[in-house]
Amino acid sequence: RAAVAVCMIVPFIAAAQGADAAAVHAVTLPEGTEFSVVTVDEVNGKSASKGDIVKLAMPAPITVDNVVVVGRDAYVRGEVADVKHAGHFGRGGSLSLMVTSVTAIDGQHIPLRASKSKAGKDHTGATVALTVLFGPLGLLKHGNDVVYKPGTEVKVFTDSTVVVHVPIVAAITP
């Protein structure tokens, strides 16, 4: 009886898998496709550490031939690539962000290449002047840390050509 039940179920499973395959549209997202992501929260060089996860968002979906391949709510992976805190003697800090991947509508991670670097205001000239005027107390002058405000735009590029399998219903855009 079990063998008969399995024989009856297998054709239905194969038909369902065939129906799923027919309901998918393969769309090629070329290497080097440019789009923007934005920071969600403030990223501050004073408190950031290398490797910290940075929340990023898609301001608009990515479409290829009017087919959405990456939704507006897609997960974008970013992290702090390097941070140098502002220091004494007027030395400004620096902060670099790296964006590594975005999740396509079919769930695969699309590798990205992008980085954004920014340096804080350097006050070394003012420090020298203050040291000349006030002696060693002038050396207490502190540089500025870098701050990325929410909504800071980062240009990114796909790092390889990827085929995204889009359900037919998701392929229709209004």
Description:
The chain has helices at 2-22, 124-134, 168-171; strands at residues 24-29, 34-39, 43-44, 53-57, 62-64, 67-70, 76-84, 94-103, 109-113, 115-119, 147-148, 153-158, 162-167. The protein is of the alpha+beta class and 174 residues long. The chain has 3 helices and 13 strands. It is elongated. The strands form 4 sheets. It has a 6-stranded antiparallel beta barrel with strand order 2-4-7-8-9-12. A two-stranded antiparallel ribbon has the order 1-13. A two-stranded antiparallel sheet has the order 3-11.
Query: What is the overall silhouette?
Result: elongated
Oligomer: single chain
Estimated radius of gyration: 25 Å
Please bin the fraction of helical residues. Answer: 10-25%
- Label the structural class: alpha+beta
How can the largest sheet be summarized? 6 strands, antiparallel, barrel
What's the mean pLDDT score? 75
Strand content: 35-45%
The main sheet orders its strands as 2-4-7-8-9-12
Total beta strands: 13
List the total number of helices. Answer: 3
N- and C-termini, Cα separation: 51 Å
H-E order: HEEEEEEEEEEHEEEH
Would you identify the regions where 5 or more consecutive residues have pLDDT less than 50? 1-20, 121-142
